[in-house]
């Protein structure tokens, strides 16, 4: 099961985190996110400790802070949503610099920002230390339904193909002097989207026929079988276990 070239989110390295089997990292990531989400929002210090734990993982993985911060920009829409919550939420209100804000909205904004940022950072670290092909093998090892693994595999394989097709269509439009400057150009863009869908559908049909002609019967062959030792599992689960201790203290205190 191959996924082609390395994705732009992946950062090649030879750190202990890179060397861990993919299914151990997937399990650790899922467990860590569950613990973070389960932490009470009032325990603000706990989220600071979670950030420190992720910083230690990034240090061990030799992932630069700049690399991580640039990829955290993907959560900007969620930040905008969180900023609006104190203004639109109901309940008790408090004045901050002369502006009336909802107390529940402030707590809700903090909850979204803290947990969302930690979740995105965890995902970025996973992607930075695990190739997409290894992620698929890890999902397969964790007994995810084979159909879902195949769908993810095809999406990864042909996502770049469809993106390249869209790029060629854009170049063709621009070579004919087209520039989308207003509402009157939306029709052209809608036709482009329709043409892209048809081309993608036709390409998928051709790929499926080619696979069937080569013996595809609904299941992809397993090329590599990944395994993990007890020591590797212990090393990978150190992060969620430490986070669980922090979460328990957060509820207790």
TrEMBL record:
Q: Main localization of the protein?
A: membrane
What the entry lists under Pfam families is as follows:
CbiQ
Keywords, A to Z?
Cell membrane, Membrane, Transmembrane, Transmembrane helix
Q: Where in the cell is it found?
A: Cell membrane
For this UniProt entry, which segments traverse the membrane? 43-60, 72-89, 109-128, 233-252
* Transmembrane in keyword set: yes
Q: Name one GO biological process term.
A: cobalt ion transport
* Entry GO CC: ATP-binding cassette (ABC) transporter complex
Name the source's superkingdom: Bacteria
Bilayer topology reads: Multi-pass membrane protein
Query: Key word DNA repair present in the record?
Result: no
Record's protein name: Cobalt ECF transporter T component CbiQ
Q: Which organism is it from?
A: Streptomyces aurantiogriseus
């Amino acid at each position: 099961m191959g996924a082609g070239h390395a994705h732009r989110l992946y950062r090649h390295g030879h750190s202990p985190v890179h060397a861990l089997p993919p299914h151990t990292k997937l399990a650790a990531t899922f467990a860590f996110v569950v613990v973070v989400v389960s932490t009470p929002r009032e325990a603000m210090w706990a989220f600071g400790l979670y950030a420190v734990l992720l910083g230690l993982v990034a240090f061990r993985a030799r992932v630069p802070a700049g690399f991580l911060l640039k990829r955290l920009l993907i959560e900007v829409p969620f930040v905008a949503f969180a900023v609006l919550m104190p203004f639109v939420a109901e309940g008790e209100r408090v004045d901050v610099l002369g502006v009336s804000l909802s107390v529940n909205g402030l707590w809700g904004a903090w909850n979204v920002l803290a947990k969302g940022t930690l979740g995105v950072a965890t995902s970025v670290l996973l992607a930075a230390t695990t190739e997409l092909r290894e992620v698929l093998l890890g999902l397969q090892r964790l007994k995810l339904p084979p159909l879902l693994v195949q769908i993810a595999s095809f999406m990864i394989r042909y996502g770049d193909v469809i993106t390249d097709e869209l790029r060629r269509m854009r170049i063709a439009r621009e070579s004919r002097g087209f520039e989308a400057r207003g509402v009157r150009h939306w029709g052209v863009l809608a036709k482009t989207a329709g043409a892209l869908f048809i081309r993608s559908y036709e390409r998928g049909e051709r790929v499926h026929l080619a696979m069937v002609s080569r013996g595809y019967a609904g299941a992809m062959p397993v090329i590599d079988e990944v395994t993990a030792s007890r020591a590797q599992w212990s090393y990978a689960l150190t992060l969620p276990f430490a986070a669980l201790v922090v979460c328990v203290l957060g509820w207790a205190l």
